[in-house]
């Protein structure tokens, strides 16, 4: 069963099953759903897992969670990993140093780690909508990767409509084209004048808005979300951390039960939360190392205990998917460590005062599991060049992890770095890094340049994007989002947006 991070308001049920939590992701007081208990895995589980495939392990873990989804549906959802580059190894582990391994999570249809969760999650959510004979509006806010993966998973799905919000100018060109060229009539993509935090704030306030829901309900439309505020995303984001350890075991790179480090490039903290839950379930993670770009609010939190939005504005970097200051899933860690009352206090303080401060003891508890560091674009480019020269291509988000590898890995243990996106989504930055220049390349030029220079193929799903017509070209002010959504749904707005 699932409970709420900020406690219960008396209006909602105290505990809900998985299906309820994913169909209704907004919990009391603007909080999030979390599992009441986490299942445990031990060395026997890991030993057995080392003889199994990714899909088999995924099903084992889903069964351990005992969620209210039929076995057949879980199997069909997990079978979607068969469409990845290598059906037998959807998340290959590449060794780039004696003790450093890259967990490549981007081999799905939209070339980012979001497919790992959104492919099966999309299947389960649309199955539930059909089974209940209900119509759903799914909202998504994106800084570049969640959007394309959400649209891909829900395209043409019955009973589902999707509205995806992205910051105009805040994603790479490829990421934008992956969204704006979508043809399926159940999808609407809206660019906003603002940044990712503005898009996610809009999503959260719509999820919590009684009048918005009332207008939808009048037309028998229910509301859910595809971001990692939805636990349906997180459950699948636990599994690839467990599988990374299994892959180390399979390759004889770790002794069963011995610890390893994991490094996570972080924005909305869903990936890091998945690692935290995996650690709590029993995966022997020594420490979760959090890598940020210069939007380093998570570095500050984990090193000083202060989460401070005052005197900060979001900066554009060459790792745009991490350009986030209001990081949703930190809340789930706070709840797990300090309980609902304290989480509500901290989150209320963030809303009202734009900051919160952990006590010394609380910070020490956070540091039991996490360490953090940040790097700038120049550092990322150096790493991209260094590894490209050695024959390994990593994207700018992945490159931020090298700082953590160099500075935070204190013990001689194997280290797994989560690689969140394919280089093809950020070609101009990649080409600048490789050529060591700052020429303004178009994405197409840069893709072709890299392909030629490094003898790599551009996947068809990326190369064909440039020939597709742009269908969604609307860029609106934040205040017009609600009206745009109603227009898409052919609804008349009830109150605020008139
Ligand atoms: N970095 C993300 C932002 C949204 O994160 P999510 O995990 O909550 O979906 C993106 O690329 O869109």
Automatic annotation (TrEMBL):
Pathway: Amino-acid biosynthesis; L-threonine biosynthesis; L-threonine from L-aspartate: step 5/5. The keyword Nuclease does not apply. Residues 90-409 form the Tryptophan synthase beta chain-like PALP domain. Residues 2-78 form the Threonine synthase N-terminal domain. Its cofactor is pyridoxal 5'-phosphate. Keywords: Amino-acid biosynthesis, Lyase, Pyridoxal phosphate, Threonine biosynthesis. InterPro entries: Ser/Thr_deHydtase_PyrdxlP-BS, Thr_synth_N, Thr_synth_N_sf, Thr_synthase-like, TrpB-like_PALP, TrpB-like_PALP_sf. One of its GO terms (cellular component) is cytoplasm. The keyword Cell division does not apply. It is an enzyme of class 4 (lyase). Belongs to the threonine synthase family. This is Threonine synthase. It comes from Sulfurospirillum multivorans (strain DM 12446 / JCM 15788 / NBRC 109480).
